Amino acid sequence: MLKIDTIVFDLGGVLIDWNPDYVYKNIFPNEEERNWFYKNICTSDWNEEQDAGRSLQVATEELVKKFPEHEKNIRAFYDRWQEMLGGPIHETVEVLHHLKHSTDLHLYALTNWSAETFPVALELYEFLHWFEGRIVSGEEKTRKPFSEIYQRLIQRFDIDPQRAVYIDDNYRNLVPAKQLGFHIIHFQSPQQFKKELTELLGEELFQ
């Protein structure tokens, strides 16, 4: 195996805790009602269109027009978006800190994130500035798992996938990376991530 020289992180669910439940648990205390709203109104597919570059205003107004009886709860999604940030996933941030300050590995981020809300995260979380480069889907007008965004990552930062590891909590987003030659880690917990990364790098990093 070629020596790993690059680590690429997903952000939400890996380094940052983001969950709409932080807002909608108060709006819909009943889990069944909350899940119905996610499945039928503010769906993951709808949210991903903003990750791919659609404006928050356009997305919101289209949904309000379609479901006027849910207007207040639809508007809450982006009016209260910052409340959906649960903060850093500290143990993973510690790994990133170690990689940044104690290794010569190249560090990048590849995230599905709206271009309009990402600046909020940049203000809140200093560690987002530790990367040599970032690819933010909303700025690119495309998103994971479409292969184009992975190709841009490779070309923009001159990455050899066979020497790179890509980490994501959504397995769907790992499939194209693997097809392009990346080593992949399906993030499920900081402990599991550290173990798999150590195995890939072939050395004990986190004693």
What does this 3D model show about the protein?
- The protein is elongated, with a radius of gyration of 18 Å.
- The strands form 2 sheets. A 5-stranded parallel sheet has the order 5-4-1-6-7, sandwiched between helices.
- It folds into 2 domains: 6-17 and 87-201, HAD superfamily/HAD-like (Rossmann fold, 3-Layer(aba) Sandwich), CATH 3.40.50; 18-84.
- The two termini are 24 Å apart.
- It is of the alpha/beta class and 207 residues long.
- The protein is built from 11 helices and 7 strands.
Write the layout of secondary structure elements.
Elements (H helix, E strand, L loop, with lengths): L5 E4 L6 E3 L2 H7 L3 H10 L3 H8 L4 H11 L4 H9 L5 E4 L1 H13 L3 E6 L6 H7 L8 E4 H4 L6 H11 L6 E5 L2 H9 L3 E4 L3 H12 L6
Parallel strand pairs: 1-4, 1-6, 4-5, 6-7
Antiparallel strand pairs: 2-3
Helix pairs in contact: 4-5
Query: Mean pLDDT, as a whole number?
Result: 96
Order of helices and strands: EEHHHHHEHEHEHHEHEH
Radius of gyration: 18 Å
Spell out the CATH superfamily of the largest domain: HAD superfamily/HAD-like
Count of helix runs: 11
The CATH first-level class of the largest domain comes to: Alpha Beta
Short précis:
This protein is α/β, with parallel strands linked by helices and 207 residues long. It is built from 11 helices and 7 strands. The longest helix has 13 residues.
Keywords for this structure?
about 210 residues; elongated; single chain; 11 helices; 2 domains; Rossmann fold; alpha/beta
